[in-house]
């Protein structure tokens, strides 16, 4: 049941016909619509779905200077009967809000997150690729929008969800290097537990150096002793212990 009055403005012309689901470059193809909501005066306003497109940003927008930006990454697939489904979307809402608290940003009501997600994906469900290993990638994110360059938490924010069809991130098994020089982000005391944009910026140089040595990605170790495994570059890692 709809709790939030999400206004929907449909795209006049779908771009779906230009997409080859058998040849999708990762992260470069975007669906027809996006969800947007703005935070001011202590609450979220104007939840809406609009045609995917650019938006203007003030040169002093605080996100550009002090990095209050968080995001999630998730996927939607289709069952055999064509019904879209997610894997535990409420856990992504919880993790987004954990990140928000760490970065002194407002939380997104879990019910709003889920209603926006379902409404958006229902609208663009034809963008979910049918091929095995492919999916509709979903990117919820939030950033500070105050037009101010003093160092303090922003009072205004924008929350957006957009989607795009993707194939497998890696078409083959990956080779890894355990990095004992760089840390992805400090979990104890730092922002390592939050899904913060800046954490990923800090990972780019070590990943580039790993590529130059012939490896696909970095296996990140803890930032204190460099002996406890945390994660791998852009994904989780699991071990089967015999």
| Fraction in helix | 10-25%
Low-confidence stretches: none
Describe the biggest sheet? 8 strands, mixed
Can you tell me the overall shape? globular
Taking the alpha carbons of the first and last residues, their distance comes to 47 Å
Order of helices and strands: EEEHEEEHHEEEHEE
Q: What is the mean predicted local confidence, pLDDT?
A: 94
By DSSP, the count of extended strands is 11
Q: How large is the radius of gyration? A: 19 Å
Q: What structural category do the secondary elements indicate?
A: alpha+beta
The total of helices stands at 4
What proportion of the residues form beta strands (DSSP E)? 25-35%
3D structure, described in words:
By secondary structure, the chain is an alpha+beta fold. 20% of the residues lie in helices and 26% in strands. The protein is built from 4 helices and 11 strands. The strands form 2 sheets. Strands 1, 2, 3, 4, 5, 6, 7 and 8 form an 8-stranded mixed β-sheet that branches. A 3-stranded mixed β-sheet has the order 9-10-11, covered by helices on one side. The radius of gyration is 19 Å and the shape is globular. The model has no long low-confidence stretch (mean pLDDT 94).
